[in-house]
Design a protein that fits this description.
CATH topology: Nucleotidyltransferase, domain 5
Order of helices and strands: HEEHHHEHHHEHEHHE
Distance between the termini: 48 Å
Strand order of the largest sheet: 5-4-1-2-3-6
Structural class: alpha/beta
Largest sheet: 6 strands, mixed
Shape: globular
CATH architecture: 2-Layer Sandwich
Number of helices: 10
CATH superfamily: Ribonuclease H-like superfamily/Ribonuclease H
Helix content: 40-55%
Number of domains: 1
């Protein structure tokens, strides 16, 4: 009985993983916004998610999920018609619904960024970095709402256009200056080819960017929302930052710190 009483005092710490990817680049004429997004879940949820995600890909003879290939019917998606794309999404969507706690991300219109004074633009650096930082902020808030003692591992897709040092600075200053920053125990890049969680994050980031770009173009995104995003919103309470309240111009980046700090 004394041993049992000892076990009752043990408090388990839940470790969460946050996978995120980007979609849209400043300077690309085909993109009018940048999004950094993904989803957060417990380790046990991701352990169940990964084989089921891969099973769906195998069923459709897809080696790696990537939205830019699916959207333009390239690589493994060459020759697909709209019906096959919908069936593919319908097979993947329940996997996300069963195992992912919450989609999280941030999206920023390029015109909004370039309209800022030059000093503010330089202080932020790039829309990617703004969206990355605020995706992390939302992840920390979500974790605090879900569990009292959780720690978070952040895994992001390798981006050759954005030096790893840029993201490391975001990671370090979030840890130092945000009230829940101590919960982030790691932040590391990975290759989406080997990580189903990053492939899922690519889907969320792409759909978030397209949603915002359609809204910027004056389209009725409520009545004519793309099917994948409609599924996400219908099944999950998403946390997406659109930088409208407060406006971006009123936000200040966290102080930059050196990597030896």
């Amino acid at each position: 009985m004394s041993e049992l009483r000892g076990f009752s005092t043990i408090r388990l710490v839940v470790v969460l993983k946050f996978y995120l990817d980007e979609s849209g680049k400043l300077g690309d004429p085909q993109h009018t916004a940048t999004a950094v997004a993904g989803a957060i879940g417990r380790l046990d949820q991701w352990d169940k998610f990964e084989p089921e995600w891969m099973r769906v890909l195998n069923d459709f003879y897809v080696g790696e999920f990537h939205m830019k290939y699916l959207a333009h019917k390239k690589m493994d998606f060459d020759g697909w018609d709209e019906g096959q794309r919908i069936r593919f999404f319908q097979a993947l969507s329940p996997v996300m619904d069963r195992y992912i706690l919450k989609p999280i991300g941030a999206v920023l219109a390029h015109q909004q960024f370039t309209s800022l004074p030059g000093e503010i633009q330089r202080s932020w650096g790039d829309p990617y970095l703004i969206c990355f930082e605020y995706a992390v902020r939302w992840a920390l808030q979500t974790a605090a709402d879900l569990y009292p003692d959780e720690e978070i591992e952040i895994i992001y897709d390798e981006q050759p256009n954005y030096p790893e040092s840029w993201v490391n600075n975001i990671y370090l200053r979030c840890k130092r200056y945000l009230s829940e920053g101590h919960r982030v125990i790691s932040c590391a890049p990975a290759e989406s080819e080997r990580v189903p969680g990053l492939q899922m994050a690519d889907w969320v980031a792409y759909e978030l960017r397209k949603l915002h770009e359609h809204a910027l173009a004056g389209e009725n995104v409520i009545d004519d929302m793309r099917w994948p995003m409609a599924e996400l919103i219908a099944k999950k309470m998403c946390e997406f930052e659109f930088f409208t309240d407060p406006p971006l111009a009123e936000l200040e980046p966290l102080p930059r710190i050196s990597y030896t700090s």
